[in-house]
């Protein structure tokens, strides 16, 4: 039975695509504190990355706990690690793409939890890796200003640490002793507590093939924005912002960031836009190359006309130069507090006589 040339070409393309997908490393998306996998921005982001890279992507929902974030990574019942362990698609390894606070969840899975499949590449978009000096995701309204001041004054109390997850990575430079003693998440994640350094955290972190740290140049959610690169304020003062290489975490190599960097495995990337406002163009340039195999990554970096790039252009033929620079997460709920935080703040301020309106 003879086949025409178009039929043969179609079969070859199908087999090539099938083999490529079957051999590629899948990735997972870990969303931010105010988002869900079902939200439009996250769904579109996941789909675009899958189409652009030719690899399979999965958004992993992590359970909002209002308290200790370790619960979301290694705790019992509905935690992220359990979902990862149960996915047979990830058993040979996977890549992590973290969005905002989702980066801390991802690092918790990587550093804290034994027994999971290996993480190959970690791509971080707007992650508060070194902490944040202001309560995130609220805004500039009167309620937020009052809440920010009140929470800062009580941030390291047991009640706040138990009920407000962002308190687990709020690092006030003028309260470092209290932070190290009472903050329940970030000091552990960054191996900061004197006398309690855990070599396993460093060993697991340095197992990464690549760590891609993307900072948004006009980020007004993370204070300072350089925390996306592990940069932060010196202990005791809010000025200046230290680059990552001048921090104690890097210099003393508490989690292996210096080790990875000296091996050429850390990529410090700055893109235009506010928090998570990444464009399709920057997704292709800075995220996609680390979701494909090494050979395809080299072709993508050296020459944008490689096999992967052709597939990208076929998938995105309707995207012109103007729309290719549009922010993917424009209007995403990543910018807003979930109702659970709003209710908590209102309760803290004694404003719960009337129910809060639902999120819009």
From TrEMBL:
Protein name, UniProt field: Palmitoyl-protein thioesterase 1-like
Membrane as UniProt keyword: no
Source organism superkingdom: Eukaryota
GO MF terms, alphabetically ordered: thiolester hydrolase activity
Protein keywords: Hydrolase, Signal
First and last residue of the signal peptide: 1-24
Pfam families tied to this protein: Palm_thioest (PF02089)
Organism, as annotated: Carya illinoinensis (Pecan)
